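Translate sequence into structure tokens.
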Amino acid sequence: MQNGIIEQEKLLRVSNLRTRFHIYEGMVTAVDGINLDVYRGETLGVVGESGCGKSVTALSILRLLASPPAEIQGTILFGGVNLLDLNLDEIRRIRGNAISMIFQEPMTSLNPVLTIGEQISEAIKLHQGVTRQEAWSKAVEMLQMVQIPSPEMRVREYPHQLSGGMRQRAMIAMALSCHPRLLLADEPTTALDVTIQAQIVDLMERLKEEFETSIVLITHNLGLIAEMAKRVLVMYMGKVVEEAPVEDLFQEPLHPYTRGLLESIPWIGKKLKTGRRQLQEIPGMVPSLLEMPEGCRFHPRCSRVMNICIKEEPPLVQKDGRRVLCWLWA
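Result follows.
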């Protein structure tokens, strides 16, 4: 048993996932040996700065990266089947059906020349084998379920005719139209105002309970993680540097990178002795994948760097039911 979740209820197991890209300058590794489990009915958070490999991990799970230039290795077990062993027709039967994805920017993910209803009903017809009229009625029902007003009218409109919040709701309706067992949500509230963000979070929570769907929530928003997730993975330069229950992570971050992320968030009541507020930052930037640092990948930006950090890659340490990739705990 792990964090109150029965081991037999494991829905997805990703082992030693490695995703590389062949580019003009050479080979780059965007995801380097990721291991993660998703249990039935849970929300797993994945956080990190832009360029840390979060979205590439999700796209790799659904095999949505063109090969070449992408090269995916490892094991992705879903329902006991390795998704990397399936042919194109087999993986297409899983996409949008058993596993769905909410993409980061709906305006670039939705087809601009098809109505919202056509795009939702297409997935329903493909995976559920219903008639065109039944699929259209289901599309209207899904728009109503995600609380889009006047769904009978909106279903005939094009993406550019909807607001940002409505487009995101339409994406969620499309992703949930076939009642998937796993939902990959990549920055589902990005570019939305705070009020709409709260509505999207409430919607996802309600639909998760209704359909018993597991969610992998990919975001850089730690407030969203605190509200929705039970467990969280922290990624940096293609690796998981820390994994913990969300309460433990916020109360006692083990990895210096995790601590830096938490200290960069504005907190009400956090003041200096002078009475002024202090906002911390992580120095520097995420290095280029073409210039991977030796040893620990975070050491050029780490405030607690040691000599061994510069020379050797740290081991993955198990500590009190948590995982951390750091020499401080080795």
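Note: The chain has two domains: 7-98+180-329, 107-179.
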